[in-house]
Design brief:
Blueprint lengths: L1 E3 L2 E3 L3 E6 L2 E6 L10 H16 L5 E6 L3 E3 L23 H10 L4 E4 L3 E3 L1 H8 L2 E5 L3 E3 L10 H7 L5 H10 L3 E2 H6 L5 E3 L4 H13 L3 H13 L5 H17 L1 H11 L13
Parallel strand pairs: 4-5, 5-7, 6-8, 7-9, 8-10, 9-12
Antiparallel strand pairs: 1-2, 3-4, 10-11
Helix pairs in contact: 1-2, 3-4
Length: about 270
């Protein structure tokens, strides 16, 4: 627990590490895990801890209660018109989305339920997003007279452009099946298969070389923007570097010797 003026302050985000996986849990169900200043501060701390921990290979982001994240804590957003510098919603949120997006360790979002507005920025920042097929989603900002500004940086890199225009402009609620169709989710599964599906992905990720995973995350995002000529030149150089790297040589040796590479946790071997 943190302390503030000598009194215990309950953490709104928890972290547990097991078998190379750090599970970071939003735990403020009283306000549907809304992005309050306190929750954002706790989330940034927990993410930095997981990223600095050499034992952590994969990060899972989830929540408690029926809602993954309801977006900005509206009670904290009341201020005088025009005083943008005082809007608490900007506290830590850009840094948090950047931490997730740029994380060299794969991040899996395990949605425990519904998500709205700013919560969808977190979902889109993650490499994988698994949700129960009963969950619903909405970009509700325009109906409040605000805009999905910060979250557009991650969301618009995931969503089909037509779908982004449809749901950003209308604020309409859509279901998990539709969320998967438009690229917001990796998988929508029956609720009783949620943990099984998340474990399937984390298990596969633990088999990848840590350096290779970090570099491959960059490839997925950067290579499509390269010209064909530049892409083939740079990727040929990178391919040669990785085949001759210590990690690459260990992976090849393990394959030839029919054993698990040294980076795979014992229980995954």
């Amino acid at each position: 627990m943190n302390t503030d003026a000598g009194w215990p302050v309950e953490r709104l985000v928890h972290k547990e590490v097991s078998g190379g996986v750090a599970t970071i849990t939003l735990d403020s169900p009283r306000n549907r895990n809304a992005l309050s200043v306190r929750l954002l501060g706790d989330l940034e701390d927990r993410l930095n801890q997981a990223l600095a921990d050499e034992e952590v290979r994969v990060i899972v982001l989830t929540g408690t209660g029926p809602v993954f994240c309801a977006g900005a804590d509206l009670k904290e957003q009341r201020t005088e018109p025009g005083r943008a510098h005082e809007a608490p919603v900007t506290a830590s949120f850009p840094e948090i989305m950047s931490l997730i997006w740029e994380s060299p360790k794969p991040v899996v979002c395990r949605l425990n339920g519904t998500a709205r507005a700013g919560g969808l920025g977190l979902v889109a920042a993650c490499d994988f997003a698994i949700a129960p097929d009963t969950a619903s989603f909405a970009f509700t900002e325009v109906r409040l007279g605000v805009v999905p500004a910060m979250i557009s940086v991650t969301v618009l890199r995931r969503l089909d452009p037509r779908a982004a225009a449809e749901y950003f402009l209308t604020g309409e609620t859509f279901d998990a099946t539709r969320a998967q169709e438009i690229g917001l989710l990796t998988r929508a599964v029956p609720e009783d298969r949620l943990d099984e599906t998340v474990a399937h992905y984390t298990g596969m990720l633990l088999r990848g070389g840590p350096e290779a995973l970090a570099i491959t995350k960059q490839l997925v995002r950067e290579v499509p923007a390269l010209s064909f000529e530049e892409g083939t030149r740079r990727m040929a150089e990178l391919s040669a570097q990785r085949f001759t790297s210590a990690e690459g040589q260990e992976g090849i040796a393990a394959f030839m010797q029919k054993r698990a590479p040294s980076w795979v946790p014992t229980e995954q071997g």
